[in-house]
Amino acid sequence: MDYFKFVSSDTPVGYTKVQRAVSAALYSITIPVALTGNILLIFIVTRRPKTRTLTGFLFVNMAAADLLVTLVDMPSAMAVPFTSIQWPPGIMGDITCKAVYFGFFVAITASILSLTLMSVDRFLGVVYPLRRFPRFRNARLLSFIIWLSSMIFMIPVAILWKVTDEFKPGKFQCFASFGNLLGDYKNDITFLYTYLFFLKYLIPLCLITVLYDLVSRTLWRHNVPGDRLVSSDFDSKRRQGRKKIVRTLVVVTAAFAICWLPAQSYYLILAFNFELHDRLPRFVMFVCNWCGHSNSAVNPWLYIQQTLIPSNTLPILFTCPNRKVPDITQGAAGACNQT
User: Which residues cross the membrane (predicted)?
Assistant: First the structure.
């Protein structure tokens, strides 16, 4: 099982000229789209008062994590078909190696946790509309918990990744040194990629699916908790607003499931059928990883497309700096008025 044969030379084997051109084109498009979208999303939430809800805050948290993926991991992934990245030896090499890969996995986990907590927030807000849950809706505390939990969950990555010249003397490279976690090469591989599959994909996706199913059942039935306490007009607007938010979050969740499915499927190949990984072209793994990275570019634009473009409020954010932009459940705003 020559796991590192594609990183043990100065020029990685297994990539044709066409594949290298395609890989460069994919990331040349993905990186600027991700940077622009996530920066714009953060700008929108800070400029638009009515998006400063817990859901909006979690979108910003996800955008920050996606920016970290864009700036740290995408450039190194883009370089894989062209060159084997050399790392400095010694303590400095180990620190930077662990920091880069640990930061990448932490950012992805934080993004997924943010998406999961959005579903919890919508569930509590729709199914229990008369309860406030102040501790859960403490945005700063929630952000701290998201990032701290992500770091704790990714401790195995910090243990496994290191710099070594074991596979090419004098050429120090950063990769997972399997055998350092459970004491056995094969067991480490199986554990790590099974762990990542369940933690970063299957468990969050199942939880989100169950919660949104309960939310949808509540929203689309006639007797929603708290309905009889408000006027019919207000309740209708509130219900439509909630439905629109839920649709947006369902679309974002579907994008997450689709984009990360190839990479997560490859995790299972690494965990349970390593010989298949040896036989597959390296470009297959590259494309699977790119599909996952593309989710960082898709997320912000989905939010913008689902919430701002239909209400025609995006231009107001740039042309009316002091205008209080209406909520997504309202129509387009008129001329700029100072408030």
Answer: 24-45, 57-79, 99-120, 141-161, 192-212, 245-263
